[in-house]
């Protein structure tokens, strides 16, 4: 009897120790239940997603700071990040053709894909690179604040579907962001309606077509919709002629890119140089400081007011 009691005691002890070991080795999953994980390709989507989710989710920007968005392709680690996410927001197949193939190979069951360009009328580049086919669509649709309103509504709907408990938060944050963009749009409209010189010369790629169209500007760019080809000598001569004929005082160079072409144009015409960021991406310092899409576009307007010049409102 004594022996059986002792054996029972030992078994209980083993069981207790076993459970204890199990408890100490068990760790909670790092993913917080209920919090949405959102992955975005370009900076504007990162910024909009961040504004809408607040503290109710996490947002990851795939594009490393300072990198050219047109030549970006995801690394194996990025693909893993996408597979673990709840929502992936991208610019559409015109800007990011790599995603189409990737999506069909993803094993993720929970991923909702948001095509930011869905429901948006893409426009063709008016002045195109001879290497790009006529009718090439311009993927920089985020530089039309009207399009951004549609993108934000679309994102808000998806977030509310994936996380209905925070629907009211997503709605009110979307409303707030859209109000900021409406105010900025009005500022751009008023600025350009009173600005005598409406020719906009960009020494970078054809990124500002939507902005130019929305505010009635004549737009000339040194490169096509993707920054992959140097302009020919004849293209540069034509641009120099345009600058002189239209009494253009400023050539804008592209933030985060080489200012070489813009510098050549400015040297030939005595125009001054000012940088504009088409907001696909930001520098590491700007990303770390938490710069927003609205702030980038406010700065761009500031540059345009100084460069055209336009009367200050
Ligand atoms: Zn671009």
Task: Report on the architecture of this protein.
It contains eleven helices and eight strands. By secondary structure, the protein is α/β, with parallel strands linked by helices. The protein has a four-stranded parallel β-sheet, with helices on both faces. The protein has a four-stranded parallel β-sheet with strand order 6-5-7-8, sandwiched between helices. α2 (43-53) links the parallel β1 (36-40) and β2. α2 (43-53) crosses α5 and α2 packs across α6 (167-193). Residues 15-32 have low confidence and may be disordered. Residues 69-70, 140, 205, 207, 278, 280 line the site of zinc ion.
Taking pLDDT < 50 over at least 5 consecutive residues as the criterion, the unreliable ranges are 15-32
What spatial order of strands do you see in the largest sheet?
2-1-3-4
In the residues, how many domains can be counted?
2
Number of strands: 8
What CATH architecture of the largest domain would you give? 3-Layer(aba) Sandwich
Helix content: 40-55%
| Run of helices and strands | HEHEHEHEHHEHEHEHEHH
Full CATH superfamily name of the largest domain: Nitrogenase molybdenum iron protein domain
Sheet with most strands: 4 strands, parallel
> Which topology of the largest domain does CATH recognise?
Rossmann fold
Shape: globular
Strand content: 5-15%
Q: Please, what is the oligomeric state?
A: single chain
Rounded mean pLDDT is 89
- Structure classification: alpha/beta
As a whole number of angstroms, the C-alpha radius of gyration is: 26 Å
